[in-house]
Amino acid sequence: MENPFDDTYFMKKALQEAEDAFEKGEIPVGAVVVINDRIIARAHNLTELLNDVTAHAEMQAITAAANFLGGKYLQNCTLYVTLEPCQMCAGALYWSQISKIVYGARDKERGCIALKTKLHPKTKMVGGILADEASELLKRFFIQKRNLN
């Protein structure tokens, strides 16, 4: 029997978080952290609400997952995030020793791949899961933002 809890399933959950961010006027990036097919953390960007440039979805998810697990390392966990992590988030993910990162859309200018940010040697990264949906949400947000200004 096929496992329904695949990368697409969990990326849809991250996209729901991104939609929540969109509704709050935040850049629509969402994230979930999963261990053993169970979501242990859900987060989205909170940089506007918290007036904090470090309040990216990934940073919020790392903190929530670490609190849930009772330790700072996220070994055997997977982060699903709708946009490729930036250099700051990739650095935090390095230190968390997360096992896998799955992202939706690429950030060709500010993403960790373009900036050649190193991940932990044991961390696997997979991209492009529901990339079109994630990209479309970001485009819609920025078009709306431009039209309001």
Shape field? globular
**Fraction of residues in helices?**
40-55%
* Helix/strand class: alpha/beta
Q: How many β-strands, per DSSP?
A: 5
| Strand order of the biggest β-sheet | 2-1-3-4-5
Give the radius of gyration: 14 Å
Number of helices: 5
**What is the percentage of strand-forming residues?**
15-25%
User: What kind of sheet is the major sheet?
Assistant: 5 strands, mixed
What is the CA–CA distance across the termini?
52 Å
Question: Any chance you could write out the topology, listing elements then pairs?
Answer:
Elements: H1 7-23, E1 30-35, E2 38-44, H2 47-50, H3 57-69, E3 78-83, H4 87-96, E4 100-105, E5 124-126, H5 131-148
Parallel strand pairs: 3-4, 4-5
Antiparallel strand pairs: 1-2, 1-3
Mind explaining what this structure looks like?
This protein has 149 residues and is of the alpha/beta class. The chain contains 5 helices and 5 strands. Strands 2-1-3-4-5 form a 5-stranded mixed beta sheet. The longest helix is centred in the C-terminal third of the chain and has 18 residues, at 131-148. The N and C termini lie far apart (52 Å).
TL;DR of this structure?
With 149 residues, this protein is α/β, with parallel strands linked by helices. It is globular, with a radius of gyration of 14 Å. Helices cover 42% and strands 19% of the residues.
